[in-house]
Structures are given as C-alpha cells and as structure tokens.
Amino acid sequence: MQTLDVTYDTNKLTQYAQEGKTPIILTDGKNTAIIAVADAIRPGVTQALERFAHRGINTIMITGDDQRTAEYIAQQVGIKTVFAQTSPSQKAHHIQQLKQDGHRVAMVGDGINDAPALAFADVSIAMSTGTDVAMHTADVTLLHGDVTKLMHAFRLSAKTMRIIVQNLFWAFGYNILLIPLATGLFIPLF
Fold it and tell me: What is the pLDDT of residues 163-190, one digit of tens each?
C-alpha cells in the first residue's frame, strides 16, 4: 500500500463536521479535494420528537457518524443524548444496556448497521426507505420512511392494548357471573 503525503485544510474538515457534514478527502497524490456529504433532516422530525418528549418518551441518538456531526444533527432536532461513532455491535450493546437499566426500548433504524440493535430492542421499527435487512429484522415497518407516523403507531398500539384489556375485563366478568348460573349453583335445591 502506498502512503501519500497529502496536504489539506484541517480547519475546513472541522468546520464541515461541526455543520453536520461528513468530509471525504479525495487525492491522486498531486491534487486534493474535500467533499462534504450530509443527511438531510426529514421534514417533521423535530415536531415528532417534541411530541414524544411531551408524552415522556426520551429520545436517544445512536449513530455511526462522527461525534461532531452527530451532535450537530441532535442539536437541530432537540436530542440531548448522543452515542456517536458506534459500530453495529456497539449499537446493540447500548440497546441491551438501556434494557438492563430498566427502560423499555423502541429502536428506529433503516440500515444494515442498525439490524443488530433492532433485534435487541423491545420494539423495533424500520423505515421502508431503508435496507431489506432492517425491514426484515424490525417488528414494524413505516411506509414512506415518514418519522412523523411514529406517534400514530404509538397511539394505535396504546389504543389496541386498551381495547384488549377492556375485552378481557368484560370476558372475565361475564364468565365469573354466568358460569355459576350455567352450572346451576344459583338454583335452590329442594
């Protein structure tokens, strides 16, 4: 492997990272170029995370991105806890640790690197715009990759659980009252 002596502006690299961009250095040994790529924050994400916070749901970012890039994105959307520069196994470890600490964990991911963490979460949610591996690992797949639909999914699951509990209450009540009647326990013996 050949080592190239490349000169570039490290201040520019730092600036890109602080702006939430990932700098990529390209060189042919004579010429050097820096390309900065960034993920766009999806519309409605900030509002969705605010709704989660209002309901007492804590949001944590676990990403393989550079620490400065991750902190910039987290600051833009209002996330306070960030684990950056994590490998797939480290993501899974963070999920396991949160569960061991007594938290119920829902993991949202869209990539191959998210699959191990999705597998360990109590509830795993994939984006349909993500990889097939993430979608096959997840319990739920959101169509169109729309994060704002997460709150709808949480409300729907809460409403479903409420209906299940109500149905169980009425079923047990019905059986407790009517099974003795059906067996003749309330009929006086002569």
Answer: 999 999 999 988 888 887 777 766 665 5
